[in-house]
Amino acid sequence: MNEFGDAFHTALVMIVSANPDLIEIVGLSLRVSLSAVVIAALLGMPLGAALAVFAFPGRRAVVVAINALMGLPPVVVGLTVYLMLSRGGPLGVLGLLFTPGAMIVAQVVLVLPIVAALTRQTVEDLWLEYREQLVSLGVTPRRAVRTMLWDGRITLLTAFLAGFGRASAEVGAVIIVGGNIDHLTRVMTTAIALETSKGDLALALALGLVLLAVSFAVNAAAQILRDMVVRAQG
Amino acid sequence: MLTAKRLLVVAGLLLGLILAGSGVSADDERSIIVASTTSTANSGLFDALLPRFTEETGIAVHIVAVGTGQAFRIAKAGDADVLLVHDEKAGEAFVAEGFGAERRRVMYNDFVIVGSAEDPAGLRGMHDAPAAIAKIAETKALFASRGDDSGTNRAELRLWQETGTDPKHASGAWYREAGSGMGATLNTASGLDAYALTDRGTWVSFGNKGNLEILVEGDKRLFNQYGIIVVNPDRFPHVKAADARRFMTWLTADEGQAAIAAYRVDGQQLFFPNYLAPGS
């Protein structure tokens, strides 16, 4: 098993030499997954917070449903989005199939439940703590949602990162809706799948190491951001 | 509450983000989508051919590599402009049913049966493919099948038909259906020391051969013809018919055919152009 040694070596060479193909693939991975997480956060954070603050019939059922959807199999999401975006499907006229846009749509669907569920938990904890105070001050529930989201922003960064982890690591959805097209829709995970199927296990593993390094860099950046926010608050 | 206006703003923002994230709008380059087999993509042939075509014509070629069965389904939904597949009968039917505008032969190679060097069923040196796999069934030696309705899978099932044995009865026992592309199935065979049917192109460029080697080759029934089909614009008005036809013409003209013949891995020619060959 000298694959591990080869993989480390190959990964180092690719990173140090700034291999242009690798940069393109990493760039697309980041662009697709970060776009998906930003969209999912814009939709999912208000949704999660609203679920925590507003009481309405059937709320518990919605909460259970969103928690369950965190386990959506990527390949099922991929297939569903594929059928929607196919020329024969309801959104076929957009011509999005086999483009990065289609990959973003699929990842939004995957990430949205994670962001919404984690936000709901965070905001619910805060809401239990501050509810009486806010209500006595005459704050409307809508206003409270905004306050809670702002107050929980540091914890919510974790929800964002969990969503990013899910998006950047999955292969099942993006390979179906993106098609793993070279120089167009090939991302880290689909490149790893391709090299594995070519039997180039060392290169596949090396790409895996690079993916890990990218994920590490994103999380480190988030940690630095969090520290800066905390320090600014004194 | 959310007003209609605010909803519209949110929707617009999301669409903008999707388009910004995708970085490529539909019109800023000429491109066609080719649904193709995993065998041609895994062999590296496209990496050698496509840059030349794109440089000459300005048309980018986006390859979606899937099994032949799925390639036909993608094209029947109107999601591809060109098909490059094996399984001639299915290709002819595709055109006859009006999904394809025109089909041409492009090139051929052949299938080989690979297996471990120990060769428990004793196939080495055989040239009769159905007799060889019948021996695998007799000895219940492990066989890794694509099991994915690909062209290679269909060719394998035709061989089984000639033997009169239905291997599906032994599915999960000695007959292992990987349900994957050619390379993934070879990884399975390599891990299990199982027999497998593969096209020669994928085999030669495959990097994880392990203990496997070619045991059976040279049967006429192992002939593997690739064809190119332009998806019919009468059926799907949005397909890029002119650029698709340009690709077919290039691939079947002298230059494309010569480029296919010139492609080598480890000094070995993987595909043999035959558009102009007699009988095509």
Notes on the protein architecture:
Chain A is mostly helical and 234 residues long. Chain A contains ten helices and no strands. Chain A has one domain: MetI-like fold (Orthogonal Bundle). Chain A has helices at 3-16, 20-53, 59-69, 74-85, 100-136, 141-151, 153-169, 172-178, 188-197, 201-233. The radius of gyration of chain A is 20 Å and the shape is globular. The N and C termini of chain A lie far apart (52 Å). The mean pLDDT of chain A is 92. Chain B has helices spanning 4-22, 38-42, 45-57, 68-76, 88-96, 129-139, 151-163, 182-192, 200-205, 241-252, 254-262, and strands spanning 30-36, 59-65, 82-85, 100-116, 143-145, 175-177, 195-199, 212-216, 223-231, 264-265, 268-269, 272-273. In chain B, α6 (129-139) crosses α7. The A-B interface holds A 28, 31-32, 34-36, 38-39, 42-43, 86-89, 92, 95, 97-101, 103-105, 179-185, 196-201 and B 10, 13-14, 17-24, 26, 33, 38, 42, 46-47, 60, 62-65, 77-79, 180-184, 186-187, 190, 205-209, 236, 238.
Mean pLDDT reading of chain A: 92
Share of residues in strands of chain A: under 5%
Q: How many domain modules of chain B?
A: 2
Please state the structural category of chain B.
alpha/beta
Helix/strand/pairing category of chain A: mainly alpha
- The CATH topology annotation of chain A reads as MetI-like fold
Which descriptor suits the 3D outline of chain A?
A: globular
The radius of gyration of chain A is 20 Å
Number of domains of chain A: 1
Query: End-to-end span of chain A in angstroms?
Result: 52 Å
Number of strands of chain B: 12
Number of discrete helical segments of chain A: 10
What's the helical proportion of residues of chain A? over 70%
Low-confidence stretches of chain B: none
CATH class of chain A: Mainly Alpha
**Which overall shape of chain B is indicated by the principal axes computed on the Cα atoms?**
globular
Task: Bin the strand percentage of chain B.
Answer: 15-25%
Q: What is the C-level CATH assignment of the largest domain in chain B?
A: Alpha Beta
Question: What is the helix/strand order of chain B?
Answer: HEHHEHEHEHEHEHEHEEHHEEE
